[in-house]
Write a structure and sequence with these properties.
Length: 294
């Protein structure tokens, strides 16, 4: 996936094994592409490298795929839900940042690369308070759209304070409690349920509340101030809208692959780094192809 002027272009390449093992390069020749000045881009681009082994064409991505760790205070990955492996029977979701292992309640069902919440299950991430600016991230696969006007919470701690990623009538939104009111930045169109996975990120830096979908900025709201703590010692939750230490509303029907919480606002490049790391880890687990964002 090639990012140009905030628009994405899918590049499809067929790799034919030539019988020569070793290192090769993938070259891309743009067609009908223009730069910011309006000039046609014709130069061939060396966009990646791959290796052929003795049995089949493979692409080797050098370096360990790691996400952003600066400011990370919660990190849950369903592929590595034990911290050193995977289990489909555990009710504890290991926090890879080492701060708070989540408890999965009621109907959270664990698959190989996701936790399914069917409108009743949720995961307790503990209290997250006294943070002025934040980032929330999650990889989400909606199981259905409920058109009742209620914010279905992906991850958050809204209770007269806090911040959350949510879906309302299928439209992703980031919600933050600032200066005594809830502020939103919302995607105009709904996501397609059951079709694709989406990486949803919400950031607040003291000036803008921003919503990113798959690494691309889709909505922002200008607002100044600091995040306010939720009332009633409300915990942060994946899968529903908490009040105190329990959840009774805002329960989402979705699969969650990963979730992260930061005590600062990530940049767009950092969001893309996390997205690529998650996609690589998931593709290795499924032995499937991967599309990366640059």
């Amino acid at each position: 996936l090639w990012s140009l002027n905030s628009k994405n272009t899918i590049i499809t390449a067929t790799i034919l094994k030539s019988g020569l093992n070793g290192k090769h390069y993938l070259w891309v020749k743009p067609e009908n592409v223009k730069d910011l000045a309006g000039n046609s881009v014709t130069d061939t681009i060396k966009s990646g490298e791959f290796w052929f082994d003795n049995t089949r064409p493979t692409m080797t991505i050098t370096g360990q795929p790691t996400g952003v760790t600066d400011g990370l205070i919660r990190h849950y990955d369903s592929v590595n839900n034990l911290g050193n492996g995977h289990s489909t029977t555990t009710t504890i979701w290991k926090d890879l940042s080492g701060n708070y292992d989540a408890n999965i309640y009621t109907d959270g069902v664990i698959g190989e690369t996701y936790v399914s919440f069917y409108g009743a299950g949720w995961a307790d991430l503990g209290q997250v308070t006294d943070i002025d600016y934040m980032t929330l991230e999650a990889s989400v696969n909606l199981r259905g759209i409920t058109e009742d006007g209620e914010d279905k919470i992906i991850i958050g701690n809204l209770e007269n304070g806090g911040i959350a990623l949510a879906v309302n009538n299928g439209q992703p939104t980031v919600i933050a409690y600032i200066n005594g009111e809830y502020i939103k930045a919302t995607l105009e169109q709904p996501l397609l349920p059951n079709m694709v996975w989406n990486n949803i990120s919400g950031t607040y830096d003291g000036s803008y509340l921003r919503l990113y979908i798959d690494g691309i900025l889709h909505a922002e709201t200008q607002v100044s101030g600091k995040l306010q703590n939720p009332s009633d010692n409300t915990i942060m939750v994946i899968g529903g809208n908490p009040k105190g230490n329990t959840v009774e509303e805002g329960l989402i029907n979705a699969r969650i692959g990963t979730a992260r919480v930061y005590n600062r606002a990530l940049t767009q490049e950092e969001i893309k780094k996390n997205l690529n790391s998650d996609r690589i880890n998931k593709s290795v687990t499924n032995d499937s192809s991967v599309t990366l964002l640059f």
